[in-house]
Design brief:
- The complex is a heterotrimer of chains A (276), B (362) and C (545).
- By secondary structure, chain A is α/β, with parallel strands linked by helices.
- Chain A has a single domain, classed as Rossmann fold, CATH 3.40.50.300.
- Chain A contains eleven helices and ten strands.
- In chain A, helix 4 packs parallel to helix 7 and helix 6 runs antiparallel to helix 7.
- Chain B has 362 residues and is an all-alpha fold.
- Chain C folds into three domains: 109 residues, no CATH class; 84 residues, no CATH class; 280 residues, Orthogonal Bundle (ABC transporter involved in vitamin B12 uptake, BtuC), CATH 1.10.3470.
- Chain C is 70% helix and 6% strand.
- Chain C has 22 helices and seven strands.
- In chain C, strand 2 and strand 3 form a beta hairpin.
- Classes of the chains: A alpha/beta (276), B mainly alpha (362), C alpha+beta (545).
- At the B-C interface, helix 6, helix 7, helix 12 and helix 14 of B face helix 14, helix 19 and helix 21 of C.
């Protein structure tokens, strides 16, 4: 009987095999105002606990700075959120509905999380504008990409982002010829082209002059609100210049959370940073 | 048309395609219409040799597409080339019919020799040209797709992938050497008589095959040009340079690699199919790792990531090979080996890279 | 060394001869009674009919006369004639149209005569088989235990119940344990053909677990015609126990062959594992460095043709040095400029491999050369009638393990090893600590290449040495490295041995070529599941961008 029924399932024209149905991740649900939930995360490499029972919540539209000494687990945390590393245990949710641990990198990117690497990674053999075009949100399957042409709306968006990151004059230059700071901006611009809801920005100020740093701070603060921005940074001045809320990671878990002033007066944080 | 716009920006490609168009017209005319006594006569031997080079050119484009643009160093493209060749060879074998040495109307000579009674199942259908042509595309394409699906999904990259492709062609080499496989063992398939009813011995058929090779090269060139200039093509070079970044901006890198790799394998298969009737034989040596790696050298010499460079490299290296293997047989491997070392050390962008540098400095 | 061993061996032979003479209780010169019996027998051969001839043969053989064997052999070979004139027995040897004859009794040469003056001593088929049996029995009394053993084994297939009695007598006098064992087996087989059920049952008990191939044949024959139920049952039980034993030893042998192949793979791969693990480049010329090692062995043997054993031992350090230097040269002139560009390194080293191959082809000719195997490595270790391990494979297995152990100690304990591991784990950090990474790279490359040379010495003992020797090993070696986990010596060992054994187990099912293909496919699939190999190097370094 059941065999017959499953056979009948084959015959139905309105149904196709499960694997033929594209998996559409549920829409981002922000009913509780929280965009990212990381709960009880654990990761260890060869017995070394890189992430140790980490709990972290990011609000919608928030600008959050994450600081911590080397090996505190900042980059590993980003790896987990973007699907590069799988945790040993714990959960990671994007909004209410999207389980990040069940998705791989492109899916997570498509769901609306953009990531800037610690080392600026742009496509150096492409022009700045091509870099942005490639990152642009849209149908990213193979065949549509083959025939893709820019329409006027998309051109406007490109120009807009070029304006935001201040590379309008360098649009036709090869990305490889940009300065270190400009590459950082280009990478942030590429994130923006993806229209993400959550931006993960790893050490955006590294290798920048003070002027560049100020501009970057300005850029990131302006992004917050429309987007949630998580910044991992070493440079305290930079953090002070942008931060609303700061989280201190230490040995893979959250040590303290609060405004910059609170953090600076926190006895534990001082111990960690200045040594026992 | 968009392809013309792309071509306008590709000076080297324009030159290459113009030259190609020129010889496509002139060589057959000089062969068929100019009398042999004339100085302008092109011998059938030369025309066939040129046709062979054109097949190599197409093969070089296929290798360049995956190596130069996508960053996958395939040391197994000879396998796709040979599979295409075998598919064509099987059609040509079936065309022989009862004209073979043993006169068996159904079985090719080598099967009669091995005392086989029945045609193996995979030889059925090859009596039809359309079926054989379908297989020329399907067999290399499917092999590439299956291999690529496994390899790219698990993110095997770099030298691992290269050695895997080499292992692939090596495994096929071993398999095709076996008589039991039913592809003629180490003698391969040969003694072809005619194609689509035209005798392979006549100059006119040879000229036809030459024109077909030239057209295939032209078609391959334009299609690769279209791919590489499209957003997908830009993505390919992006993958070559920063694979992770591409993944994090939301592309399925494995799918892109899979499609490009498969397309490249199909091009290689077509090149093989055109190559076989011109040289008159296909045997397992085409699967040897050395053959595959030679193709890479063509591209390296010509300059990777430029399509015309790949074609130029294929022609140059093969001309040198034809010359040296006759003039100084021992010297050829020395020359080839040195070419590997010198090009990688001194000319990482090949000859065309050298030309472009001069252009830029001017 | 060789001289010594041959002298020692001849001493042993002397000793054994004396021993056997004493044990047989046969005087060096035949008794006069035997002499007359021999002559009587010879007379009977000339004059008798076939039945009388048969008796004569038995009589002659029973005499222990030293002339007996020659006579019987000549009779069997149709070389025994009588002179028509005086009926003397003679041996003939052809000389042109005439034949020269030798007197059987006196052994005197009688010059050449026309063939028609002679008459052949004829025999029939029955006599022929009788002669063979008698000759075998004769050989059983040979003073050389090896000959006796061979005779016993030959006898196994043509035993009759009557043979049992003769064997019985021989058993009581035999001192060599192997021969004695053979005689016991032969007696039991002879008894199996007896009509007495009890005797057959007894024989079956004796044959329990006997691995001699003749026993299995005999049991199969017995089961085909045996009527007695008890004997049948017992025979079946004995046969099945023998068969399972044979199957077990077959398994052992297969594992041995697999380990042997695996040890070769380990030798070939371990150098690659070092260079690939530490420097991160694939040296496609690795196979050719193996080939260089093999040719070094060949050359050294050519230089000292009288002591190939010593040459082989000398070849080990020589091959290490030559291949090692070649490796360092390659590293300094080519690879060093290509660090960080692994694909280019692959191409450049492939070019080097072509150059090396062609050089060898030009210098030594494209033909294969064979390297002699010294006496102490040839032959095989016969553990029992169905299991023998060839000594050269055994030696190479041990040698591979020694090389592995040596290399492991070197990397674990020496300061070079420490530096190598430091560079492998974190190049820039190691450099900051004052390690000269460039020097370490060169030395590591030299070390890996040197090991390849040593592998070549070992390979020269298994296959012919030719320009293509190395080519076939590069893919296999790489598979081993990938399978075992890059930069992990243990992984290479386990991976190599596993692949070797797997290959040998697949072979009988699928044939050698298909087995190889299956292994390749398996590894391709394996990498899907575990891209880092069997023993991955875990940690953040592996995952960091």
């Amino acid at each position: 009987m059941s065999v017959l029924e499953s056979m009948r399932g084959f015959m139905r024209r309105d149904q196709v095999f499960d694997f033929l149905v594209p998996v559409v991740p549920p829409d981002l649900d922000l009913t509780h105002g929280v965009i990212l939930y990381l709960e009880n995360l654990n990761v260890s490499f060869d017995g070394f606990k890189a992430i140790n029972d980490l709990n972290l919540y990011i609000d919608d539209g928030e600008l959050r700075c994450i600081i911590g000494p080397n090996g505190a687990g900042k980059t590993t945390m980003m790896d987990i959120i973007t699907g590069k590393t799988r945790p040993d245990s714990g959960s990671a949710w994007f909004g209410q509905e999207i389980n990040l641990l069940a998705m791989d990198e492109p899916e997570i990117a498509a769901a609306g999380i953009g990531r800037k690497f610690q080392k600026p990674t742009v496509f150096e053999h492409h022009r700045v504008i091509d870099n942005l075009e490639l990152a642009m949100a849209g149908d990213k399957r193979v065949w549509p990409t083959l025939g893709a042409r820019l329409n006027s709306e998309e051109r406007d968006r490109l120009a807009e982002v070029l304006q935001i990151i201040g590379l309008g004059d360098q649009a036709k230059h090869l990305a490889g010829s940009l300065s270190h700071g400009q590459k950082q901006w280009l990478e942030i611009g590429m994130l923006l082209m993806q229209n993400p809801r959550l931006l993960l920005v790893d050490e955006p100020a590294a290798g920048m002059t003070h002027q560049e740093m100020d501009r970057t701070a300005e850029l990131l603060t302006s992004l917050a609100g429309d987007h949630s921005v998580v910044v991992v940074e070493h440079d305290m001045d930079f953090v002070r210049s942008i931060a609303g809320k700061v989280t201190v990671l230490h040995q893979g878990s959250v040590l303290a959370e609060g405004t910059m002033d609170e953090i600076q007066n926190n006895q534990q944080v001082i111990e960690v940073y200045l040594g026992e | 048309m968009i392809i013309l716009r792309y071509l306008k920006k590709d000076t080297g490609g324009m030159i290459t395609l113009s030259l190609l168009a020129l010889i496509t017209v002139i060589v057959p005319i000089c062969n068929l219409l100019v009398p042999e006594t004339s100085g302008l006569h092109v011998s059938t031997f030369t025309m066939t040799l040129l046709g062979k080079y054109l097949c190599y050119g197409l093969l070089a484009i296929a290798v360049d597409l995956v190596w130069g643009y996508l960053g996958i160093l395939s040391l197994g493209h000879g396998a796709f080339f040979a599979l295409g060749g075998y598919a064509m060879g099987m059609y040509l074998m079936r065309q022989i019919g009862s004209r073979g040495v043993y006169g068996n109307p159904l079985l090719p000579d080598f099967m009669v020799f091995l005392n086989w009674q029945h045609l193996p199942w995979f030889w059925h259908g090859f009596q039809w040209f359309w079926f054989a042509m379908l297989m020329v595309i399907l067999v290399p394409g499917l092999l590439a797709a299956i291999f690529g699906w496994f390899a790219f999904r698990s993110r095997v990259t770099g030298v691992y992938l290269s050695i895997m492709t080499q292992a692939l062609t090596y495994a096929l080499l071993l398999a095709f050497y076996r008589n039991e496989m039913g592809f003629g063992g180490n003698n391969g398939l040969t003694d072809f008589k005619d194609i689509l009813g035209f005798s392979l011995q006549t100059d006119a058929t040879r000229a036809g095959l030459f024109i077909a090779s030239a057209l295939a090269l032209g078609f391959g060139y334009l299609s690769c040009l279209y791919i590489t200039r499209s957003r997908l093509g830009k993505l390919c070079t992006a993958i070559r340079d920063q694979e992770d970044r591409v993944r994090f901006i939301g592309y399925r890198v494995e799918n892109i690699k899979l499609w490009i790799f498969t397309f490249s394998a199909i091009l290689a298969g077509i090149a093989g199919a055109l190559y076989v009737p011109q040289v008159g034989i296909i045997n397992p040596n085409e699967f040897s790792p050395l053959a595959s790696i030679e193709m890479v050298v063509w591209v390296a010499v010509g300059g990777r990531a430029t399509l015309y460079g790949a074609v130029a490299g294929a022609l140059l290296v093969n001309y040198a090979k034809s010359y040296l293997t006759v003039a100084m047989p021992d010297a050829w491997l020395f020359a080839l080996g040195s070419l590997f070392v010198l090009v990688t050390l001194l000319l990482p962008r090949g000859i065309t890279g050298l030309l472009r540098k001069k252009e830029a400095s001017r | 060394m060789i001289l010594l061993s041959s002298r020692w061996r001849s001493c042993l032979l002397c000793f054994l001869t004396i021993m056997s003479l004493v044990s047989f209780g046969v005087a060096p010169c035949p008794a006069s009674e035997d002499t007359t019996l021999f002559e009587q027998g010879a007379h009977q051969l000339v004059h008798g009919n076939f039945r009388q001839k048969e008796a004569a043969i038995a009589k002659i053989n029973a005499t222990n006369d030293p002339r007996a064997e020659k006579l019987l052999r000549a009779l069997l070979g149709g070389k025994l004639y009588r002179v028509k004139k005086d009926n003397n027995l003679v041996y003939i040897t052809k000389k042109g149209s005439r034949v020269s004859i030798t007197d059987v009794l006196s052994g005197k040469e009688l010059g050449t005569v026309k063939k028609r003056t002679l008459k052949k001593i004829t025999i029939n088929n029955k006599l022929r088989s009788k002669l063979r049996e008698e000759l075998a029995l004769l050989a059983l009394r040979s003073p050389d235990p090896d000959k006796r053993l061979a005779a016993v084994n030959k006898l196994m297939s043509s035993l009759s119940p009557e043979s049992a009695k003769i064997l019985e007598k021989l058993i009581t006098t035999e001192t060599n344990s192997k021969v004695r064992q053979g005689l016991l087996t032969a007696r039991a087989i002879a008894n199996l053909r007896d009509t007495d059920d009890a005797k057959r049952l007894q024989a079956l008990t004796e044959l329990q677990g006997n691995l001699n191939p003749a026993v299995k044949n005999e049991l199969t024959r017995l089961l085909g015609e045996e009527k007695n139920k008890d004997v049948r049952q017992k025979a079946e039980a004995v046969l099945s126990s023998i068969e399972s034993k044979i199957a077990f030893y077959g398994l052992v042998e297969k594992i041995f062959f697999g380990l042997s192949l695996g040890s070769v793979l380990v030798l070939a791969a371990i150098g690659l594992a070092i260079t690939f693990g530490v420097i991160g480049v694939i040296n496609m010329a690795h196979g050719e460095l193996i080939m260089l090692g093999a040719y070094t062995t060949y050359v050294i043997q050519q230089l000292m043709p009288n002591s190939i054993g010593l040459a082989l031992l000398l070849a080990i350090p020589a091959a290490f040095v030559i291949s090692g230097l070649a490796g360092i040269l390659i590293e300094r002139t080519v690879i060093r400029f290509l660090y960080g560009r692994p694909l280019e390194t692959l191409l450049a080293t492939f070019g080097i491999s072509l150059i090396l191959q062609q050089s060898v082809r030009t210098i030594f000719s494209p033909l294969n050369r064979s390297v002699a195997t010294p006496a102490w490595m040839s032959g095989s270790l016969q553990l029992n009638p169905v299991l023998s391990l060839t000594i050269n494979r055994l030696t190479i297995l041990v040698f591979a393990l020694l090389v592995f152990a040596g290399l492991y100690m070197l990397l674990k304990k020496s300061s070079l090893g420490l530096q190598v591991r430091a560079v492998a784990q974190n190049r820039s950090m190691a450099r900051a600590m004052g390690i000269r990474a460039a020097k370490v790279d060169a030395l590591t490359f030299g070390l890996g290449s040197g090991i390849a040379g040593i592998a070549g010495v070992a390979l020269s003992q298994l296959t012919n040495v030719g320009p293509n020797l190395g080519q076939s090993y590069i893919i296999d070696s790489f598979m081993v490295v990938v399978f075992g986990g890059v930069g992990n010596l243990w992984g290479t060992l386990v991976g190599g041995l596993t692949l070797g054994v797997a290959n040998k187990f697949l072979e009988p099912w699928t044939g050698a070529v298909l087995a190889k293909i299956l292994i390749l496919v398996f590894i391709i699939l394996f990498i899907q599941k575990r891209p880092q190999g069997l023993f991955p190097q875990k940690g953040r370094a592996g995952a960091a961008s």
